[in-house]
Amino acid sequence: MIANADEIQSTLGCDVAKDTVTLFDSRTLKTLTVSNTTAALKAALKPYAGRTGMLAICEATGGYEDELLRVLESLAIPAHRADAARVKAFIRSCGTMAKTDPIDARHIAEYGLLRAKSLPRFQAPEPQDARMKLLVARRADLVAMRVQEENRLKAPRNKPIAREIAGHVAEIKRRIDAIDRQIEATVSGNRRMKERQAILRGVPGIGKVIAPVLLALMPELGRIDRRQAASLAGCAPHPRDSGTYKGRRFATGGRRQLRPLLFTAAMAASHSKSHLAVIYRRLLAAGKSKMTALGALMRHIVVIANARLKEYEAADARLT
User: In terms of C-beta distances under 8 Å and separation of at least 24 residues, what long-range contacts does 58-63 make, across chains too?
Assistant: First the structure.
């Protein structure tokens, strides 16, 4: 759901810290700092409940904003959780050198006013979706730890402590297996999630590891168009042109956690017996580099996944 610029007359900029939240009201130009607790936030935000044409904006802070978003949702106050990097770039573009919580809250409110038309409303994920996202993120952390330890195990200087490192690698592998079982149980216990994963696994290159990651990190799949899907996955090529210069296009942006997994999926698809392997060979025959051809397959995979889930969502909506 996109907030319509014509509907937004005021914004509430929320600068979130671990222990406090600083609020800036663009209508009254007043600033208030409160404790980052349910009781304090409810008391501070209750006067805004029912105000028409208002949008609350906060940055993604790694979870410290969760309490604020829960309170805003309970009071039916529309909210947007902004990308911290975009807000930071906006503040920098304003020429502001000083940094305090009230200054940041004011700029966050201004950011919301200027971009109201394109800012999606925050929607709290379903409990099972939130759990899946946590499990997938934890698995990624454990895999990164395993790779680091395996590299240390190969280092010649670490031979005296090789046994200790090998024990840690074995323990990490056990933890990854345990997470995999939890992910499987979470999917099996949810009809919709189970059906969506089965559809994803029917896409060339997507296996049992990648399917739950796509479910967790791209919940929008099936509800967006092909261009949005490619952009969210970081597979959309962006032009680099200036005047008569036509630069090479690169796929940038998107959710960085997805690109390595989609690359793995593209590698698998390129060696499969699917139509994507035919496309891959055709691109190579046309003189494209392997990386360019694999990038194209990544884009095809996410677009196909989105299209098939869109069909599923439409059918599911008719049944319900």
Answer: 58/14, 58/15, 58/16, 58/21, 58/82, 58/108, 59/15, 59/16, 59/83, 59/84, 59/87, 59/108, 60/84, 61/16, 61/17
